[in-house]
Amino acid sequence: MKRNEIAILSGKGGTGKTSLIASMIPYFDKLVLADCDVDAPDLHILLDEYNRTEQDFVGLQRPVVDYDRCVACKACVNHCKFQAIDESIKLILGKCEGCGVCQAVCPQGAVSMQDNVVGKIFVSQTEQGALVHARLIPGEETSGKLVAEVRKKAKTIAEAEDAEWILIDGSPGIACNVISSITGVSKVILVIEPTLSGLHDLKKVQTLVRGFHIPILLVLNKADLSTEGKAAIEEYCQEQGLEIALEIPFEPKMVEAIVNRKMPSVYHPAFFDQIGFKEFIEKVQA
Amino acid sequence: MKIAVLSGKGGTGKTTVATNLFATLEKGMLIDTDVEEPNSHLFLKPVILERIPVKKEYPVVDEELCTLCGKCGDFCRYNAILPAKKKVLVYPELCHDCGGCQLLCPTDAIRYYPRTIGNIYTGKTLSGRSVAYGDLLVGEVSGVPIIEQLREISGDEKIVLIDSPPGTACSTVAAVEGVDYAIIVAEPTPFGVSDMKLVVEMLGALQIPMGVVINKAGLGDREIYDYCQSERLEILAEIPFSKAYAKQYAQGGLLSETFPPFRETMELILDKVSKAGGRELL
Q1: Mutate to test the interface with B, among A176, A221, A250 (most CBs of B within 10 A)
Q2: Are A227 and A237 a contacting pair, CB within 8 Å?
Q3: Nearest-neighbour CA in chain B from A12: distance (Å)
């Protein structure tokens, strides 16, 4: 069976990615969920998880110095471009990027590169399908790699369960974690707000997605917040040939659903009928 | 005093709080370190005086000298340099500029050259206050070098407000490391609390004093208040959810200039932060 991966992104944070993806879930028959927002994962909060298993995520290896062999020649100190080894040959973990140059230049063979756990990957079951999510230890820089691992795991499960769809909840921004969330997906849904910041951030993330030649569906959330803001977004979309596939007016019940830890479309179905959510899902699945 | 404004979850109001605190403070400098999606300049509207390209180096292979031995590719842990059948392929965006491939090349065929990964824009607001923001180019994988350079540029300033990136990964740490105080802007929702916990953990590990501003108060539930109490986190202020605020924000306006109660809230935050050790603020 052909598997379709759909990523939900936004550029700007807090525009409603997770609320949207949670609302979409009930409309998919067989799906696997991948929360790729690994330093702020929230999708699991709205789902009843069971059978959660976890495994360690090993990022880049880190050097370990054998001080019995070290003769303090400082070759490692001098060659490290990240100033991650101080004058007393102590590693400053936060600065190390795990390149391995210190190991390569040590004449004594005193440096070894060792696995370093920098996060956890969770797999759990929900009523709606399997959920893969993860957590990166704060400050770590391998979030792109962790996202790739989450997606790999989701794909393996989708194959085993013969699930047609994988929905990916992405992170804000445009850097490695976002790039890693969209490589090879069949569609990207961008959730935006009708604000000046929203438009500014849309331009960057849209350029990124276009670079990968992935079709884009736009969702304008809190659409009635600003008439001027909405007009500016519409004008930009027309210029760019972008389709606004769904408009969601501001609705306090959306927040109420989150507070009650419920999928918004289940909590308040009448509202979703009213805004044409079914038609939007058809566009997503087309 | 260096003060970071951060949030964990995106869209909670970091930029709103940072820019309005800056406008209320009437001294100091603001740097926007959310280099993937910088927004503070949309509200502060500085006149840009200088654009500083931020560079990183990457390897270029001299095909005449290269023997395709493959040592560079075996060494590189980022898959940024891959010896193929006829030539060595280099992926500059993946390169961390560690210098390993050059060190190991037996025929000295590798040289490093600079390339631009983004820009820093520095300028002044109408009232002559210094503002700088970074902008990562689309397709680049990490804004950390830009954030570090922004921190360097503002290093000599007495008072610096730092608009930080969302999340808790490397770019956030680069933005907040070594600051004197952190203001967490959080929403009173389950998502807000969940993401805020990660930020509190990160700031704790970095030993940075912190306080909380609850934004869009009244919209969610009480969990955040219980959490702050159990963690003994000071709530600096609450900003009520207001459609009028949201409208003004949508158009790029500074709330403190239009709404006196909002300005008073900013003054209250500054007052509390100054009591927490920032006498320079007064």
Answers
A1: A176
A2: no
A3: 7
Distances (CA, A) of A264 to A247, A271, A277: 15, 9, 12
pLDDT in tens, A134-183: 998 887 777 889 999 999 999 999 999 999 999 999 999 999 999 999 99
| Burial class of residue B105 in the structure, from the number of CB atoms within 10 Å of its CB (0-12 exposed, 13-18 middle, 19+ buried) | buried
Which helix (DSSP H) or strand (DSSP E) does residue A192 occupy?
A: strand A187-192
- The domain segmentation of chain A, as residue ranges, is 4-54+124-285, 62-114
Sheet holding A244-248, edge to edge: A50-58, A117-126, A129-136, A31-35, A165-169, A4-9, A187-192, A216-221, A244-248
DSSP three-state, residue A261: coil
Candidates A265, A263, A279, A277; CA nearest to A48 is: A263
> Does the beta-carbon distance from A179 to B141 stay under 8 Å?
yes
Q: What is the DSSP letter of A69?
A: T
Largest distance between two CA atoms of chain B: 71
Other CB atoms within 10 Å distance of the CB of residue A70: 16
Cα dihedral angle (B269, B271, B272, B278), rounded to 10 degrees?
Answer: 110
Tokens 């059978």 sit at which residue? A51
The structure's pTM equals 0.94
Q: Which residues of A touch B97 (CB under 8 A)?
A: 81
Q: Which two tokens mark A252?
A: 């306090």
Q: Which CATH architecture has domain A4-54+124-285?
A: 3-Layer(aba) Sandwich (3.40)
CB contact under 8 A, B250 and A141: no
> Where do the DSSP E strands lie in chain B?
2-6, 29-32, 47-61, 81-83, 88-90, 110-124, 130-136, 160-163, 181-186, 210-217, 234-240
Taking only residues 204 to 243 of chain A, the set having a beta carbon closer than 8 angstroms to any beta carbon of chain B reads 204-205, 207-208, 211, 222, 225-226, 228-229
Q: In this predicted model, what pLDDT tens digit does every residue of A1-19 receive, in sequence order? A: 678 999 999 999 999 999 9
Nearest Cα of chain A lies from the Cα of B163 at a distance, in angstroms, of 14
Token pair listed for B252: 């790029």
Query: What is the architecture of the domain spanning B2-46+125-281?
Result: 3-Layer(aba) Sandwich (3.40)
